[in-house]
From TrEMBL:
<dbReference type="InterPro" id="IPR057678">
    <property type="entry name" value="DUF7918"/>
</dbReference>
<feature type="domain" description="DUF7918">
    <location>
        <begin position="13"/>
        <end position="165"/>
    </location>
</feature>
<dbReference type="Pfam" id="PF25534">
    <property type="entry name" value="DUF7918"/>
</dbReference>
<feature type="compositionally biased region" description="Polar residues">
    <location>
        <begin position="223"/>
        <end position="238"/>
    </location>
</feature>
<feature type="region of interest" description="Disordered">
    <location>
        <begin position="223"/>
        <end position="247"/>
    </location>
</feature>
<protein>
    <recommendedName>
        <fullName>DUF7918 domain-containing protein</fullName>
    </recommendedName>
</protein>
Amino acid sequence: MIYEDLSVSITNTQGKPLEEFKQLSTEENSVECWIPSKEGDGFQIHWQPIRNFKPQLGLHCSIKLDGKKVSSGGLRPSKISRGIPGIKVGMTVAKGLKRYYVFGRHTITDRDDLAQPDDPGRELMGTIQVTLSWSKYGRPQLRYEPYRNPEEPRFIHERAVKKGHLGSATLGAPIRKTADWLEAKDIIIVERYPTTRDSKPKSTRRTIKKERELTTSASIAETLKSHSSMTRQGQSQGRSDEIIDVDALDSDNDSDVVVLNDPVEPKVFGKGVRTET
């Protein structure tokens, strides 16, 4: 979906944009559209400016699923100048743990004691809301504030659900991010010394190995424990000088971002998706 100089798209997990229907402007700096969704399918959020770039400014993205803020991301000026889009696939909820975006389904009830028939948030059910703002980026900082885990989906009263639309946008179960995967993606840079005939290969992988041992020793069953217990476990791990804080590289931390109120106002994009810029 394109609005003025900005582009936002909801894609499948391979990065292919989902088809958009009924795009329309809803208010100043706001536009929305509908997209198809299938329960259990993952999705990604891509954004970028397509023209009239702002010199020295990046593009900050704030994301809400079903009206609840889940994460944010940043697109730095160096990437904008090279035509590289911003991409968000999920939210880091603890050290080494990520929850990916996924389409779900509301749990419906007719009990007034479990859900409100006139739920004030019903207009945001089944929406993906993206707010884009031109931003000035400072020097990246390590993450020291605690991670957070969004509120889990609750019961929805049957009279509050839009007719025929039971779908939701949410976060999947937490998945461990291993050091091997991060290294393969060049998120962790490992120094390797050249090998000669008279020398044995030297390894500088001590910190990587320790991180790998921590993340692979748990079984799959442990990985899929309740979200809250895993989050507490991740938050309780102390700071270690030997382990690379790979989660500090995630863009959920806004400590290096200053969102500008001037010269560009925030704009809005989607419904079924609701996207805001």
